[in-house]
Amino acid sequence: MSFTQFFQQLMNGFSLGSLYALLAIGYTLVYGILSLINFAHSDVFMLGTYFAFYMITIFMLPWWLSVVISVVLCAIVGMTIERVAYRPLRSAPRISALITAVGVSYFLENLGLVVLGARPKGFPRPDLMKNVYVIAGAKIQGVSFWVPIISIGILMVLLYIVYKTKVGMAMRAVAKDMETTRLMGVNVDQIILYTFALGSALAGAGGVMWAAKFPQINPLMGIFPGWKAFTAAVVGGIGNVVGAMIGGFIIGLAEILIAAFFPSLTGYKDAFVFGLLILFLIIKPNGIMGETLKEKV
Amino acid sequence: MGKRDYILTAILFVILLFGLWLAQNYLNAYMIRILNTAFIYVIAAVAYNLINGIAGQFSLGPNGFMALGGYTVALLMLPVYQKIQVYFLTPLIWPFSVITFPSYLFILSLFLGGLIAAGGAFLIGFPTLRLRGDYLAIASFGFSEIIFVLANNFIPLTNGALGIKGIPQYTNLWWTGGLAFLTVFLIRNLVNSSFGRALKAIREDEIAAQTMGINPFRTKLLAFAISGFFAGVAGGLFVTLISTVSPTLFTFAMTFNLLIIIVLGGLGSITGSVVTAFIFAFLQEILREVEATHTIGSFTIPGIPGMRMVVFSALLVVLMIFYRRGLFGTKELSWDLVFRLFKKKEPQE
Per CATH, which fold does B3-284+307-348 belong to? Predict the structure, then answer.
C-alpha cells in the first residue's frame, strides 16, 4: 500500500471515527448520569437523517437550515423519550429501565418501518461533500475532509458546555451524586432533560453527516452504528466525555484500517469491533480514561 | 417438593400427554403449528427468565443462542445428499460434510446444539459478568449481531444468506411438549434449590449476597450458561419444525418476543412465562388481523404490514411503566397455591 493510499484510508477512518465519537457522547452522558444504556439513542440518530431528508426533499429548505432544524427536532425527541418513558422509572429497578429503553428503541424502529417505509431512500448530498480534494497527491472526498472538521468543531463546543458552563457543571455534579446535587438546590430532572437534549442533538448532527457519507437511509440504519458507538464509549471509559471521543476515533480507525489492510476480512469487520469490546472488558473494563469506582453499600 | 407434589406433577404430565394425543389427532395443521411454536416459546422464555428475572442480569442474547443451537442441529441432522444439494456453490467444510446423525440421535443433536449455545453464553458471560453494570446487555446484543454477521459471511459452514433447507422435520408435538415440560420441571427445581436462592439473593443485592458467602460471578455464569443451553435446544427444535434455517430466522425480533413474554408473565415467575408464552403464541396469530386488509361494507381499510411489532413494542413500554409486576409478579403457580384455593379453610396469615 502506497503512502497516498494509506493517507486516504486514514482520512476515511478519521471521518468515520468522528461520527462514532458524536454518537458515543450521547451514550456516555446518559450512562454517566442514570447508569442506563439508552438503546433509543441509535434511533434518534436515524430520525435525524430522516428529518433532514424530508426538510430537503419536501420543504426544499437549504442544506444548512435542514441540518439545524433536524438537530433541534432530535433534541426534542430525546427530551420526549426521557420525559415519557424514562422518568416514571427513575426509582424502579435498573432492569426495568433497561427493558423500557429496548422497548422504546424497538418502537421507534418499527414505527419507522411503518411510517417512513422499509425501502432505503437516497439522501441528497450537498456539493460541498461531493467535491474531491487533492492533498499531497492523495484524493480526499469532501465528506472525509469536512466531516472530521465539523465534528471536531462540535466536540469543542460540547467540551466547553460540559466543562465551562453552569449547566455542564450541574451535569457533572448529577453524575457524581444525584442526591447531594438535589440538596444543593439543582433541579435534577431539568438537568437530566438537558443532558438528553444535548446527547440527542449530537446524535442528530452525527446522523446527517453519516447520511452524507453513506447516502442511503433506512429505518434500521441506526442499530449497528449505535452499538459500535456504545462500544466506543466503553473502550474510552463509560461516563467520560473525552474518553468517548477517543474511543470513537479508535473504533473508526480500526474498522477502516482492518478493511484496508486485509480486504478479504471486510465482511468480518463488525466481528473485530465485538472482539475489541470483549478484550477491553477483560483487560481494562474501566476503559482508557475511566476511573475505578468504589462500590457504595 | 414433597412426595405429594411429585405425584401431582406426574399426573399433570400424563394429562399433558393425553392432551398432546388429542391435539395430534383432532386439531388441524394450523393449530398444531401454533401449539408447537407455543411450546418452543415456553422453553426459550423460561430459560430467558432464569437469567433476566431470577438472576436479574439483563441479557439480549437469546436469539444468538437459538441461532447457534439451530445451526448445530441443522448441520448434524441434514442428510449428506441434501448437504451436497444445498452447498452447491461452496462445499461444506469437513467434518460436517460427511457426518449425518440417524433420526434416533435427534435428541443427541439437540443436546449438542444446547452445549454449543451454552459455550457461546460462557464466552460472553466470562468477561462481562465479573463486572458491575450492564455490560452483559451490550455484549450479548453485540454477540447476537455477530452471529448474524458470521451466518451471512462464513459460507462454507452456514451457506450464507441462502440458508439451509430440506432439514428433516423431526419436531412434532411430542418433542416440543415433552421438552417444554422437562425444561419447566428442571428450571423450577433449580430455582427452588440453594442455587436458585443464591441467584435471587444476587438479584436483590449483589454485595449482600457476596457477604453471605455466595460467589456472584460463578453463580451468574452458571445460570447464564444454563439459560443459553435451553435457548439452544429451543433453536434446534424450531429449525427442525420449519425444516429450514437462514440468518434472518433468529433476529432481534425473537429476543424481543421473548422479552415481552417474560415481562408480561412477571420477571422471575417461571409459571408466569409458561402462561404468557401460550398467550403470546396465539396473540401473535390474532394480531395478524391488524395487518390484514378489511372490508366493511363499501369501505376498504388497507392492511398495515409491520403494525404488529409497533403494537408489541408500545405494549412493552406501557407494561414497564404502569404494570411492572406482570401477571404473576415473582410469584409461582404451585401445588400449595392450588390446594389453598380449593380448601379455603384456614384464614391466610
Answer: ABC transporter involved in vitamin B12 uptake, BtuC (1.10.3470)
3-class SS at A135? strand
Instruction: Report the distance separating Cα B281 and Cα A8, nearest Å.
Output: 52
d(CA B208, CA B221): 18
Q: Do A295 and B143 touch (CB under 8 A)?
A: no
| Closest residue, chain B, to A264 (C-alpha) | B153
* Model ipTM value: 0.85
Task: Give the residue numbers in B contacting A (CB under 8 Å), as ranges.
Answer: 52, 56, 58, 60, 123-124, 127-128, 130-135, 137-139, 141-143, 145-146, 149-150, 152-153, 207, 252, 256, 259, 263, 267, 304-307, 309-310, 313-314, 316-317, 320-321, 324
Rounded to a whole number, what is the distance in angstroms from the first to the last CA of chain B? 22
Which of B136, B304, B310 to probe the A interface (max A CBs under 10 A)?
Answer: B310
> How near does any CA of chain A get to the CA of B44, in Å?
18
Domain positions in chain B are: 3-284+307-348
Residue A118 near chain B (CB below 8 Å): yes
> Given this model, what pLDDT does residue B43 score?
96
Is the model more confident about B208 or about A1? B208
Is residue A252 scored above 70 in pLDDT?
Answer: yes
Cα A171 from chain centroid (whole Å)? 18
CA distance A142 to B232: 47
CA B310 to chain A, closest CA, distance in angstroms equals: 5
A42 Cβ under 8 Å from any chain B Cβ: no
**Confidence (pLDDT) at B348:** 46
Q: Report the pLDDT value the prediction gives residue A1, as an integer from 0 to 100.
A: 67
Task: Indicate the helix (H) or strand (E) that contains B296.
Answer: strand B294-296
Cβ count within 10 A of residue B344: 9
Contacts of A145 (CB under 8 A, 6+ apart): A11, A15, A133, A135
Per-residue model confidence as pLDDT tens digits over A158-216: 999 999 999 999 999 998 888 899 999 999 999 999 999 999 999 999 999 999 888 88
Nearest CA in chain A to B133: A35
CA proximity to B127, closest of A258, A282, A18, A159: A282
Q: How confident is chain B (349 residues) per 10-residue block, as mean pLDDT?
A: 81 88 87 92 95 91 94 90 81 77 89 95 91 84 89 87 87 90 93 93 91 92 96 95 91 91 90 92 83 71 77 88 82 79 58
Does residue A230 belong to the interface with chain B, where contact is any CB pair within 8 Å? yes
